[in-house]
Amino acid sequence: MKDTHRVVPAEPTPPEPSIDTALSAVRLLHAATEELFDAAAERYGINRNDLRCLEILEREGPLRPGRLAQASGLSPAAITKVLDRLEQAGYVTRSGEGGDRRTLQVRTSDRHARMRRDTWRPVADLAAAALAELSDRQLEDLIAVLTDLAEANRQSARRLRRP
To answer: How far is C-alpha 138 from the chain's CA centre?
Structure first.
């Protein structure tokens, strides 16, 4: 008579929390974010530098081209090309007083606002749903850790830029 008992494999146990597993999760989030930014840039016919400059303008508001170059780490010549592309695509406007280029300001447009809403609102909704599962204490801890990781990245970028 055959044995009819089957051994059911145990559920794999998740790895023990460790610095290495946390760093792996951070790398996974970073890779997924890069993939998202690439897809957004491709969808709207712009490149990653263009998208980064739009994000800076969203965060900081209207800027002079020189300040945008500084904030993005791009050269003034590169910013001119970025702004030409973004203006041609209808995502920014450039305006100043008269012909005085010193007063020129770059602003995001209504078309950009629609693109932002259509692209990033669903992303924010999904993230908010995941974060809603956390307790207030967990949210506080997550905010602190993410803030510290962002500062670690900024410090690392400054170190890499040193001669």
So the answer is: 22
The tokens for 105 are 């300001």
pLDDT in tens, 16-38: 789 999 999 999 999 999 999 99
The set of residues, in sequence order, having a beta carbon less than 8 Å from that of 48 and lying 6+ positions away, is 37, 38, 41
Dist CA 92 CA 155 (whole Å): 31
Give the predicted TM-score (pTM) of the model.
0.76
Which structural domains are found in the chain, ordered by start?
A: 31-109 (1.10.10.10)
The span from the CA of 54 to the CA of 62, in Å, is 10
What would the pLDDT profile of 53-106 be if each residue is shown by its tens digit? 999 999 999 999 999 999 999 999 999 999 999 999 999 999 986 666 667 999
Question: Which residue from 115, 101, 97 is spatially nearest to 50, judged by alpha carbons?
Answer: 115
Q: How far apart are the first and last CA of the chain?
A: 78
